[in-house]
Amino acid sequence: MYTQSISLESGWHAVGHAPEGGSLGPLPVMVPGQIHPDLVRAGYLPEPFWGKNAEACQWVEAWDWDYECEFDLPVDWSAAWSVLRFEGLDNAASVCLNGVLLGETRNMFTPYEYEVGGLLRARGNALAVRFSAISKQLAGKRLDGYFSCFTQERVWLRKMQCGFSWDWLPRFVTYGIWRPVKLISFTEGRLTDACIRTLTLAGGRASLEIEVEAETRSAKKCEVECAIRDRDKRMLWHGRIPLAGGRARIQPVLERIEAWWPHGYGMQTLYDLEAVLFCGGSAVDSRTVEFGIRTVGIEEIPDERGSTFTLVINGERVFAKGGNWVPADPFPSRISTAKYDRLIRLARDANMNLLRVWGGGINEPEDFWHACNKYGVMITQDFLLACAEYPEHDPAFAEEFRREVTSMVYTLRNHPSLILWSGNNELGMNSDPKEDYPGKWLAANISGPICRELDPTRLFRMTSPYGGPKNNSTEAGDCHVSAYETESLFTGDMSDYRQRIAALNGRFLSESACAGSPPLRTLLRFMTEAQIADPTDAMWNYHAMDNPYKGFHSMDYYGMLLHTAKCLFGETGEPEQRVRHLEYVQYEWVRLTIESLRRKKFSSSGLQFWMYNDCWTAINWSIVDYYENPKAGWYACRRSFQPTIASIEDCGGHVRLWICNDSLQPVAGELRVMAITTRDGVCEFEMVFPVSCPANGTSVAGELAKDRCRCLLDRRGVLVADLLLGDGRIDRACYFEGMPREMDLPVVTLSAQATTAGDRGSIRLRTDNYARVVTIEEDLVCEDNYFDLLPGETREIKWEALHEVPALIRVHAWNGVTVAVHVRGS
Fold this sequence. Notes:
The chain is of the alpha+beta class. The chain folds into 5 domains: 4-185, Sandwich (Jelly Rolls), CATH 2.60.120.260; 187-291, Immunoglobulin-like (Sandwich); 296-640, TIM Barrel; 644-742, Immunoglobulins (Immunoglobulin-like), CATH 2.60.40; 750-825, Immunoglobulins (Immunoglobulin-like). Helices cover 17% and strands 34% of the residues. The strands form 9 sheets. It has an 8-stranded parallel sheet with strand order 26-25-24-23-22-29-28-27, with helices on one face. It has an 8-stranded mixed sheet with strand order 40-42-38-37-44-43-39-41, with no helix packed on it. Strand 20 (310-313) and strand 21 (316-318) form a beta hairpin. Helix 3 (337-349) packs parallel to helix 4, helix 7 (497-503) runs parallel beside helix 12 (575-599) and helix 12 packs parallel to helix 13.
């Protein structure tokens, strides 16, 4: 082998040093890892997610933590050019090998390398990483000079910002070797980077650019051999490029290629670029990168409101559908490859095509990006600044940020799923884009220029939100707006909630919040049954968290959610039903928001919910909970984000019947509209509208006066519109007058049969009368859930077990009793 590499991830132990003296340990620690989970395993900390145990974890951040291990070299190790590489150290540490200080670190997000050939021994190498408490890092720093949401000290520290607490996460200030550490040896040269980008794409023909960077220690002639292969290992192109000044560049043209498309628009075709470094005719290093061929742009067309804001991928306009990604754990070193894959697949299965990696989190690892590439989930990436004023004019801070941004761009720029860089999250919120605002200097002088130099074919925006007369304008650019977080909404009975949602506007909603509880089975993983049964118990507020800057002085987040559930669905003294109401708030809000904005396509061109996933056992914003259970909002996304939907718009005395089609093919069929009484199932009105909708467009199938459907006006019935394309129904839209709590619902009886084969199965459901909010209440990913069943209707729902196949599947309708059905093999 021309390079050698050994992992240094075993045999580590740590000792903690208290600020007042005394120590703890040594205790075995995981590498990659962070100290809190190690302390839990050793019995020094309680489980941080249960109850209020997070408060018992706060002492950890005040201590110093020394990590140490010993290692031997393989007998054939070539030590002359050896590099010790840490992919991630959290965060301020001194690194020593065999008693020699190699250097000091200050950044969680960037790798650190040290050349150590002259220090290595054949046996008994002692490696130590000594982490300093953040109080020492902050010595001499002015903590009151910069505004910062939640805490002030974080602005000086290049750590995961939400770890200092947020309105959905308690404080967990971590330390540890949180990403892999390796010892690598080279001979005459090493590849330091290989990049490939799409310059042009048309008609299956692509012009590409390959750039390779290398470090050599040889007087011999050095060159790079590059090869592009498809996933069947078939060679599509190869060539040799001379190395000059440590760089090689070439622009190949490929014929008959397949583009990479976001989910719902085409295939996610991926290729491999292999680069091999030759010195004197001998291969000395190689690197393989995954890439896709695609182009990306933003269409901004002036109109009477301002200007549109639409993503354009491979020349096609794309309606962006998705959410905001936050770290999937407060201790991100323990997020597994499998969890990344499941979470991104769940986004794809909810018909999402875009996630925004939020700026208060981390630079996600290769596992995350590989899943996004594979499943067709586009990513907009914030640089890692959020909701604060940072010391951007401090030379040391600016230089560290420059190093961080450069590393991120080099690391991520080959991924086709990455479509846009953003300078930060909300630093310039509500500011005039032309004037000075927090973060602007960093974006204008560091992150923007670096992106233009190193990643010129990808979009860069100064901040998020950005554009229009003020950042966060609904008339141009992207915006962070929601119909839910409006104080006046919570001062009355919320009878106008649907009108408020319909009035929500924005060119591209890169954050739009709506809350909802996780299901009961998730609540029981961090609350007791008695706490759940008491809606006034403090544990609800503790796990719902709150935002002291939101401006709602009369109501906290949990109070807002509880108030919404009562107004929409009515009072209930039954704890399980109250939880169901708290869940369904999110379904109702998500469904109506999606339908309203899709009807405005492409005046509005994107909707990303705050937030997609969760970092902790929280009761508020996520669409998928911490344990990867899809919440009610996920099922609303799955239904309402599907390529073609029906939608019913309330226009006062009449309703308008819409078809929204995001596919790249026109659709034709029929819309079958029925007015059905909910109590006895009588169909009082039926009509069929022909449907024709253009590719990537919308159309109105017709309008219907409400007075033709007396059960609607009397609030005794529901209007149902079934969209029929091809062989069957692909979507159903429903509309009723008044508030959901006013629906005239009968007592209903459900019948169910369930079968399974492996970790998948199906459940067949039938109702004798109108069944409201039929819910499959297990750790399953279902093709549909939280839906209404019409009288006499039968539906077969396919499912996949999230963890293990249950022996019983419980199904509940709001106006019935829970049915438990045994699962039998098929």
